[in-house]
């Protein structure tokens, strides 16, 4: 097998250009190849479903779910299991071939819709359909920007779908947009429009997930979460899937095994529905990239429901489990379809014979400032702004990562003027959520809305403030955006914010490698997108 790859979809891409030998994330070329092929055949299937809809036929939810799951599999740090990805390619081809037979007008379909092959042909095909197969760098840049946004949208849609909430208009758009990234007749202007339209569906996707989460689990409320450990053995659950957490909490009840959250699962503690479980013990550890040390010292099984997986050390690999779109070769995977009950008994049995977690820290952190909770506190917040006690808010949502340059966000938070409040969501918060930044008249200076998809809450809060202050433009609010990105969910959050009219977003620690100079210029000129500078310069820029 040829030892080559090209991937530049995340912030940590090698040299800020592209991973070509092996992924900085640990993704090997043979896995990267199958992910490229999975994206390609998923686009082919989407061209077929889009054509079927145009011909007045319906597409089943199972097909929609296959497409969103496939895209989720290819998100950074979600799935490293080549065999599982090959299975997904085969399944997609078989579904696509069956649907293709129903299409009347097959002639206008792209090559990806017609292509089919045996497993023995997959590597050769994968080598021909990767990112670099689009030669024009601006078209390539826009196609990838859209594709990455759609991957993020697919992830959020999937989380809503497992809670049995579907929105056909989102699937319809997602598939038609995937198909358009194969269309050689579309130029830069059309693809720029499609990028912005993707942002609109990003808002819809996050709204759907917000509705699914809050209808099922209640509205997040201010909650103090324990950081220490108890004496029982535990299971650590990571990733973003609340339905998996719910099933795990149900099945661990009365077993003597505690459940702890990790990384993006922390905000689960804010939901009323999970508070009734006495064995829901707290949050263990920090953002994803510290997992090698923290999973080691956790001592018990770890369940990854989504990204971000770091290739595990042998010492704890037999304790690392995956489910849903996540996967790692050699780690056990728990199956379970939409609406089905997953069986976590094997994980629970493993936990029972493990020592309890080793304590990393003690104390608590507070979060739960999603839209409903903040609206309940609106009078207090508005008064604080009117009196000048709060001068400005800064949205610091997004992702965390391992690069040293991300210390910028800790320093930035530490040095913020004391009358500035941070609005956050996503694992970016771990750069400052354990600092003692105090409060302003009882309002904490770090308001954590939840997971990265809960950036939607931050947008609702901003829109509410705009209404309360009688402003015409969201950009007139005392609000700055200093967002950290890593993987593709942050791309859909960014596009959603652009759709809502937010300007002058600062994005760091580096701008995406997949933005060609011309595409970057479009974003700079139309939306004032900028990178980050030094902490001192940026503090001056944002707060004078
Ligand atoms: Fe490199 Fe990021 Fe792609 Fe991994 S996901 S191969 S680190 S660009
Ligand atoms: Fe983090 Fe992976 Fe993006 Fe949901 S867990 S924010 S990086």
Could you provide a short overview of the structure?
The protein has 544 residues and is of the alpha/beta class. It is built from 19 helices and 15 strands. Helices cover 44% and strands 10% of the residues.
Describe this structure in words.
By secondary structure, the chain is an alpha/beta fold. It folds into 3 domains: 203 residues, Substrate Binding Domain Of Dnak, Chain:A, Domain 2 (Up-down Bundle), CATH 1.20.1270.20; 130 residues, 3-Layer(aba) Sandwich (Rossmann fold); 174 residues, Rossmann fold, CATH 3.40.50.2030. 44% of the residues lie in helices and 10% in strands. It has 19 helices and 15 strands. The strands form 4 sheets. A 6-stranded parallel sheet has the order 4-3-2-5-6-7. Helix 9 links the parallel strand 2 and strand 3. Helix 1 packs parallel to helix 3 and helix 2 runs antiparallel to helix 3. The chain is globular, with a radius of gyration of 23 Å. The mean pLDDT is 97. Bound molecules: iron/sulfur cluster (SF4) and FE4-S3 cluster. The site of iron/sulfur cluster has 12 residues, from loops.
